[in-house]
Amino acid sequence: MKKEDCIFCKIANGEIPSKTLYEDGDFRVILDLGPATKGHALILPKEHAADLFELSEETASKVLVVARRVAARMAEKLHCDGMNLVQNNGKAAGQTVPHFHLHMIPRYQDDGQQINWVPGECTQEELETVRREIVG
Ligand code: AMP
Ligand code: ZN
């Protein structure tokens, strides 16, 4: 189902033009308007899901296949040296558009971008406590 007021629904379904790299029955892959690097793309499912939590298992199972296909193409054509896949869910995680999207960010040696976090520290006991909290 599409969501009426969702811009990525409109883009994914071709109602708003975009720089499309790939399209099939389930997805459209477009160039990001504010690219972190040359070739920064977004994989948009045509079905609306706000985020990973709402995404159907069927769509989830297909999205990495598309990413792999487009990544191979970028490696061949753009000669990127690496690739970050980034996927934000919820405001706290930096999501600004509430329609699931997977960022594909080609990386180039010394491209000056930083897609990082600050590593924390913890003990084996603390890890075990968290593990139990999640699986328990
Ligand atoms: P996020 O912060 O993960 O929700 O990412 C949203 C991304 O969508 C940002 O990288 C924006 O630059 C990009 N974006 C927003 N509107 C458009 C648009 N109309 N076409 C292409 N990219 C867009
Ligand atoms: Zn949508």
Summarize the entry for a quick read:
The protein is α+β, with helices and mostly antiparallel strands and 136 residues long. Helix content is 29%, strand content 18%.
Q: Keywords, please?
A:
alpha+beta, binds adenosine monophosphate, binds zinc ion, globular
Count of individual helical segments: 3
Give the names of the bound compounds: adenosine monophosphate, zinc ion
Mean pLDDT: 97
Helix content: 25-40%
Kindly, what is the distance between the CA atoms of the first and last residues, rounded to a whole number of angstroms?
Answer: 34 Å
Q: For the report, how would you describe the main beta sheet?
A: 5 strands, antiparallel
State the shape.
globular
* Strand runs, count: 5
Query: Which spans of ≥5 residues are poorly predicted at pLDDT below 50?
Result: none
**Strand ordering within the main sheet:** 1-2-3-5-4
Structural class: alpha+beta
Give the strand content.
Answer: 15-25%
What's the Cα radius of gyration?
17 Å
